[in-house]
Structures are given as C-alpha cells and as structure tokens.
Design a protein that fits this description.
Number of domains: 5
Bound molecules: flavin-adenine dinucleotide, (2R)-2-hydroxypentanedioic acid, zinc ion
Mean pLDDT: 97
Largest sheet: 7 strands, antiparallel
Low-confidence stretches: none
Strand order of the largest sheet: 15-12-14-13-17-18-16
Number of helices: 16
Strand content: 15-25%
CATH topology of the largest domain: Alpha-Beta Plaits
C-alpha cells in the first residue's frame, strides 16, 4: 500500500521531491526548540499550487494525514509530525516566488514559501515597508506566519499578520483550490473565509499564496532604551508614549533584569548599556515620515516629561543605525539565550494592560513561593499586553528533570492567573500540540465546540494536521 501511494506522489512531484530516506527527512522532523521529534512516511516538496492540490487528493484517497510546514520555527510543535510514521510532511519551501508588487494598490502577492526577510527586502527595494518583523524572520515563511497569525515587534502600529493580509489562495482538505487572492480593503460578501484560514495552523486548509498590505517606508527612526523601576511606571510610560507619539510609536518592548542577565551570561557582548541592568529595560522605537528633527525632538520631549513624572530613571538614545540595531539584537537574543541555557517552560500570554501589573505581581509571588529558586524570564511586546512569561529551573538544576516534574502545575498556575485577568493563553505563537489541552481547558466550552464543528465541516476526514489545535 505505502509503495503504491509513494509511486503516486512521485508521479505528481518527481522522484527528487518525495523524500523518504532518514538522511533526507531528518531535518524536517524536529522543531526549532528540539522539543518535538516525529517520523514521516515522506517529506513532500511541491513547486506549485496544482501539485499541492494533487497531493491532497492523493492523501485523501489513501486516508493519509498531512502536516503542512514552512520554516519549522513555530514554538508549539504544529509543524512536526507525530511518532506513527504514517503522516506526510508537506513543506512549502520551493514555492518562494513574489508574484507581484502592485505599487498603486500598495500590495504584494507572493507564494507561501517565501522567507519573511526576503519579502521585507523585496518590498524595501521598491520603496515599501512590509511591517511584519520577528526574530525568526531569516527562516520563517509567509505561509507559516499566516497559519500562526504571527505577531512580532511591529504589532503595536501595524497589527498581527491577520491585519496585514487582504487575500489568500488555499488548497482545501478535499484538494480543491480556493482562489481568494483579491487585494481588496473592503469585501463584505458573507462569511470571511480568509480569516478562517489565518491562524488555523494547517488544520483547515493549506495556504499556498497571499496578497498582503504594504506601507510607505519611514524616513526616520529613533530607538531608545529606558530604565524603569517597576511595572506600574513602565505601563505609565507606555500610556504617555501612546498619548504623545500616537501612530509614530512603532515599538515598545519590555525586558526584565533576569532576562537580560541570562542574555549576558550566554552573550557577554550583549551587555545592557543602561547602568546596573535596572529592574526593567524598555526598548522604544518611534518612526516618522516627516523630518529627522521632528521625531528626535518629540522623543526627547516625551522622555523629559517621563523623567519629571518619575516614570523612568535613565535612558540611552541610539545615535546611529548600528547602535539601534544592537539594542534590537539584545532584545531578540533573549530567546537564543534561553535555548542555550536549556529547556524552559514557555508562556506566550496576553492580558489587558489594565490587568498587567496585578498579573505580574501575583504570578511572580506565587511562582517564587511554590518553586523557590526558579528564574522568571519575563519579557515581551508590552505595548500589546503580550508577555513571554517563561520559567527556567533554578541555576544548576537539570532542566529535563525539572520540566518533567513541574511542567503541568506551572502551566496551570500561570494559565489560571491569565484566566483570572481576562487574558489569553496564546498571544501570538498559536496552539499546535503544545497547548491542545490548555486550549480545551481555557477557551470556554462553547467556543471549543464551535471550533470542533468548523474542523469537522471543513476536514471531515481529519487529514489536515490532526490533533493540532483541536482534536475531533
Ligand atoms: P512552521 O513552524 O513551519 O509552522 C507553524 C504552523 O503553521 C504549523 O502548524 C504548520 O502546520 C502551519 N503551516 C505552516 N505553513 C503552512 C501553510 N502554508 N499552510 C497551512 N499551514 C501551514 N512568533 C511570533 O508570533 N512573534 C515573534 O516575535 C516570534 N519570534 C520568534 C523568534 C525566534 C528566534 C523563533 C525561533 C521563533 C519565533 N516566533 C515568533 C515563532 C515562529 O517564528 C512563528 O510562529 C512563525 O510564524 C512560524 O512560521 P514558520 O514558517 O516557521 O511555520
Ligand atoms: C519573541 O518575542 C518571541 O522574541 C520569542 O516571540 C519568545 O522566547 C520566547 O518565548
Ligand atoms: Zn514574541
């Protein structure tokens, strides 16, 4: 049976693009965090939408499950197959063409396998900003960004991936091609199919292409690091910037002392330029389409007001691009420092800004009381109320053993606090297999049932990424 099926796939893709040997498939079977490793009947590398559709039809006929995959940088194990060896991985990396930049419509249309950074660079070469930006941009792909509704560091000004998307092309679970590639900013023709597929993590359809929004490139950007003493003043600082800089505020990232201490341990060249690594370091970016002078003066005047109002104790403004980049590198290296330190327990959570102070104070207190010595690596996109509230074992304690013993209760403690504050247990990383149970427990029964109904309706055979997001 398997051989007949593989022959059929080879007839669709050509022998070179149906990978079955261990040497060829291994790189596709373990996620970025090395938390999940699976097996696959084959790894498939299609070059166009028709091939994707033909693969899905063949899989539906043989009742073989498909795990769609982009850059495999996701944090929730969504793109990793299970251990059965019966699933196929469908990696979109060969579908990497930008199809068109429509300058007048300010849109870019592209295939799902385009690397995010390549899209940013192509847009910039034609004078546009493609604002989606995240630490994995050198390897994640636009299809993966859409499937996870990725966030990143520009959400505050430009929104999540969902907000940047105008149209999609999708292969359905039946192998039909839905062409929804319209670059329209208004389209009220009934149910929004596009929004159904965005964030569905490969469980409802395979995204093969997209039309996304472009923006004018800013002419001037100013980046600063600000020291604050507590979370209340950090939020007050955010509110001040929101009020005075309005849409010029393009970044507001928070890093705690403990996060940056871990950075410095693994990357000593990433020293915090603020004196004595303060309790909170905030990276703030303003972008302007007018003059350099205008935004610089605005930044200085807001910082002055914040200093006089007791919201901050120190600040360093980047004087050139390379210094600004070094501030961003320091922020983005926290994830790499955590990986170098060993496995940790990730919580990508969001709460309303009005509840953030109480969330951090109470959760810190409970975690430190119940798990003495653990390190709380708390940082994130504060402007969006999105914290990466990660827990690392006490220094010197084996991470695997710690996680085995405490993963469940630590997750439950944090998620309980999130629920109490009216938040969400997944802000931007998605659900995958990591949060399957968390979603069931915290989404609410009615919402969870509606999600299962949708899954059954669109994929009744359950062949698209089964047991990810929801189990039916
Ligand atoms: P994959 O990991 O390959 O897949 C993710 C999910 O999407 C899987 O469920 C997969 O089945 C599905 N999928 C992939 N392609 C398709 C497709 N074409 N059609 C249908 N389903 C598909 N995320 C953020 O949101 N914000 C951040 O700031 C951020 N920073 C990161 C920093 C680092 C260093 C790393 C390693 C990751 C970071 N991430 C971040 C997580 C990750 O990069 C994002 O989730 C990204 O969107 C995943 O894209 P990918 O191409 O790697 O997708
Ligand atoms: C970021 O914002 C990413 O840097 C990674 O979303 C978060 O490491 C993490 O938990
Ligand atoms: Zn993030």
């Amino acid at each position: 049976m398997s051989q007949i099926f593989l022959n059929e796939l080879e007839a669709i893709l050509g022998k070179n693009y149906v990978l079955t040997s261990e040497g060829d498939t291994t790189p596709y079977l373990t996620d970025w965090r090395k938390r999940y490793t699976g097996k696959a009947l084959a790894v498939l590398l299609p070059s166009n939408t028709q091939e994707v559709a033909a693969i899905v039809k063949a899989c539906a006929k043989a009742n073989i499950a498909i795990v769609p995959q982009g850059g495999h940088t996701g944090f929730c194990g969504g793109a990793t197959p299970d251990a059965s060896g019966k699933q196929v991985v469908l990696n979109l990396k060969r579908m990497n063409q930008v199809r068109e930049i429509d300058a007048s419509n300010q849109t870019i249309s592209m295939e799902a396998g385009c690397i995010l950074q390549a899209v940013q660079e192509r847009a910039a070469s034609e004078g546009f900003l493609f604002p989606l930006s995240l630490g994995a941009e050198g390897s994640c792909m636009i299809g993966g960004n859409l499937a996870t509704n990725a966030g990143g560091t520009n959400v505050l000004r430009y929104g999540n991936t969902r907000d940047l998307c105008l149209g999609l092309e999708v292969v359905t679970a039946q192998g039909e091609i839905w062409n929804g590639l319209k670059g329209l900013r208004k389209d009220n023709t009934g149910y929004d199919l596009r929004d159904l597929f965005i964030g569905s993590e490969g469980t409802l359809g395979i995204i093969t292409a997209a039309v996304m929004k472009l923006y004018p490139l800013p002419i001037s950007q100013w980046t600063t690091l600000v020291a604050t003493q507590d979370i209340a003043s950090t939020i007050a600082l955010l509110n001040l910037f929101q009020k005075r800089a309005t849409s010029l505020l393009t970044g507001f990232e928070m890093m705690t002392q403990e996060s940056l201490a871990l950075n410095e341990k693994h990357f000593p060249q990433m020293r915090n330029p603020l004196q004595n690594n303060p309790p909170f370091t905030v990276l703030i970016e303003l972008s302007d389409h007018e003059s350099e002078e205008h935004v610089r003066q605005l930044l200085e005047s807001i910082l002055e007001e914040a200093f006089e109002g007791g919201m901050m104790s120190d600040a360093v403004i980047a004087t050139n691009l390379s210094q600004a980049n070094s501030f961003w590198h320091m922020r983005e290296h926290i994830t790499l420092a955590q990986a170098a330190e060993g496995a940790n327990l990730k919580h990508d959570i969001t709460v309303p800004l009005s509840a953030l102070e109480s969330f951090i104070q109470e959760t810190d207190h409970l975690i430190r009381a119940q798990y003495p010595g653990v390190r709380i690596i708390n940082f994130g996109h504060l402007g969006d109320g999105n914290l990466h509230y990660n827990i690392a074992p006490p220094e010197g304690v084996d991470a695997q053993a710690f996680n085995l013993a405490y993963e469940k209760p630590v997750h439950e403690l944090v998620y309980g606090q999130v629920e109490r504050c009216g938040g969400s247990i997944s802000a931007e990383h998605g659900v995958g297999q990591l949060k399957l149970e968390g979603l069931r427990a915290h989404k609410g029964a009615v919402a969870h049932d509606l999600m299962k109904t949708l899954k059954r309706a669109l994929d009744p055979q359950n062949i698209l990424n089964p047991h990810k997001v929801v189990s039916i």
